[in-house]
Amino acid sequence: MDDGVIWGTKDFQVPEYFNFADVIDEWAQKEKEGKRQSDHPALWWIDGAGSEVKWSYQDVVVNSKKTANILSTTADVKPGERCGVDNAHNSRVLANADCMFENRYYVVTGGVIAALPVDIGPKELHWRILRTKPVCVVAASCDQIKSELFDVVDQIASSGQVDIRSRIVVERMKHEQRDGWLSFENLFQTASADYQSVKSLSSAPTGIYFTSGTTGNSKMAEHSQASYGMGSTGIRKYV
User: What positions does the domain AMP-dependent synthetase/ligase occupy (predicted)?
Assistant: First the structure.
């Protein structure tokens, strides 16, 4: 579709089926064939301490397919089901996981990501989990994720209020092991990088985000396969 086509006009057409992961695959193939400069990373992340991560599109494809296998098999997340992922960015490993989860996992598998920021507090986290009803929760084991936030997830899972079938912790330290939580790193080491993207409707949901909730309860906003791509196009064009 031409960039000049305006949303809402008769020339603006959205295909019936679309999976945004296919776009990432195409860029990865261009890298492999030398049609795209490989020194221009798909992901470039630096934290406050100077730790740096650079991924090519080929890296994103391989790592996200491994993550897709983890969440589709071990975590048993099925197309259309929701996976709650915290948004901490204080660790190198979690930054890698965030890229895999938010940029590709859910569009590859047909799963839906529900963003759970780490600074919202136990009460708001409880509210968001009850609203999104994730079957899997992924969290980071770092200073930003307080023990009380893990406690909220465990309490909801044990109470049966939400059918949380699996809980995964990223960058788990030995002294921070928690019963019922799986290690992302351990699963990632043996996960297969062979995964076929699902055939998704353009209208299929891919991500759920929340308003700030400053004047009341936070409200959910949903992205589809198509709107996720169109949003990225808008950012590229106008920001």
Answer: 32-227
> What's the per-residue H, E or C state across 119-132?
CCHHHHHHHHHHHH
Taking the C-alpha atoms of residue 142 and residue 172, their distance in angstroms, rounded to an integer, is 8
Distance CA 202, CA 225 (A): 5
Q: Across the 239 residues of the chain, what is the mean pLDDT of every consecutive 10-residue run?
A: 53 78 87 84 81 86 87 87 73 46 57 79 88 89 67 92 91 65 90 84 84 77 78 59
User: Which pTM does this prediction carry?
Assistant: 0.79
Q: In what order do the strands lie in the sheet with 220-224?
A: 181-183, 166-170, 136-140, 82-86, 112-116, 205-210, 220-224
Cα separation, 19 vs 228, in Å, equals: 10
**Residues with Cβ within 8 Å of residue 98, at least 6 apart in sequence:** 85, 87, 89
Please give the DSSP secondary-structure letter assigned to residue 136: E
Q: Which residues contact 230 (CB under 8 A, 6 or more apart)?
A: 7
CB 87 within 8 A of CB 149: no
* Contact present, 137 and 161 (Cβ < 8 Å): no
Q: Are 42 and 27 in contact (CB under 8 A)?
A: yes
